[in-house]
Design the sequence.
């Protein structure tokens, strides 16, 4: 038999028909093909993203870990992001700003959400049992100005509203990596962890964040990133935090630590 044409040629010739078939198979649009299978309703959890990429947005491994553990826990997930410009764009291959580029936080976050995302302005406590913030420098650059202003930072008004609304409603809040600074700034007297308070030869390269958290009036609790002591639960405020990539360690330790955070968030929902 004659050889098959390359996949690119097959897509080119069948592209329009294929797209039509996909749309018919997914009445909700192509994005619906990326959603998880329907299941018995568990906790309804909002996940707030801050872009796509560790140095200027959401840390992708952390977001993925959060979503995997939520799926395993039977949660029903909706992702959100603020519809605002990024502070700047980083060329991740060089670790340097891409001066000529500008990007939108919501649009970039949609890459992680596989298109299924909404503006943070639409997030309400009535629709969700808990909210989780993955880390990445986007939390300190796009959700707040912590990366520039430290303890004098300002928090995006929608982020502040969400944190205060969930806290007032007594619904749990999960944060990992550097995102606990958001709770430290907004929720007076909150207890959080970003890991250790000393760099320890480079194992905890962002240890100075713990000092800023104390200056914000929050309590910092020293925690490991490993599965033995991976998350801190502030039972009074229902805030659960874990260090994640604040520590230089193996990826599976970070994945397990985020799993402990998610597990405790789901436990606090009572569902």
Sequence:
């Amino acid at each position: 038999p004659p050889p098959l044409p390359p996949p690119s040629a097959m897509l080119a010739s069948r592209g329009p028909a294929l797209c039509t078939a996909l749309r018919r198979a997914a009445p909700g649009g192509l994005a619906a093909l990326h959603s998880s299978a329907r299941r018995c309703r568990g906790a309804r959890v909002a996940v707030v993203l801050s872009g796509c990429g560790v140095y200027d947005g959401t840390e992708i491994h952390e977001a993925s870990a959060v979503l995997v553990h939520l799926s395993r826990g039977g949660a029903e997930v909706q992702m959100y992001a603020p519809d605002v410009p990024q502070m700047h764009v980083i060329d991740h291959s060089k670790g340097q700003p891409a001066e000529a580029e500008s990007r939108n936080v919501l649009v970039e976050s949609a890459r992680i959400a596989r298109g299924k995302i909404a503006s943070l302005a639409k997030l309400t406590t009535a629709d969700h049992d808990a909210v989780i913030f993955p880390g990445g420098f986007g939390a300190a650059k796009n959700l707040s100005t912590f990366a520039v202003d430290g303890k004098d930072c300002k928090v995006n008004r929608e982020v502040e509203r969400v944190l205060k609304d969930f806290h007032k409603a007594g619904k749990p809040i999960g944060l990992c990596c550097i995102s606990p600074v958001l709770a430290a700034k907004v929720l007076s007297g909150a207890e959080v962890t970003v890991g250790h308070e000393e760099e320890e030869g480079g194992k905890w390269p962002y240890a100075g964040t713990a000092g800023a958290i104390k200056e914000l009036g929050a309590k910092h609790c020293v925690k490991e990133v490993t599965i033995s002591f991976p998350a801190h639960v502030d039972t009074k405020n229902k805030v659960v935090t874990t260090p994640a990539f604040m520590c230089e360690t193996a990826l599976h330790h970070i994945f397990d630590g985020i799993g402990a955070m998610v597990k405790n968030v789901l436990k606090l929902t009572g569902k």
Remarks:
- Residues 44-269 form a domain with the Rossmann fold fold (CATH 3.40.50.880).
- The chain has a mean pLDDT of 89.
- DSSP finds nine helices and eleven strands in the chain.
- The two ends are 58 Å apart (CA to CA).
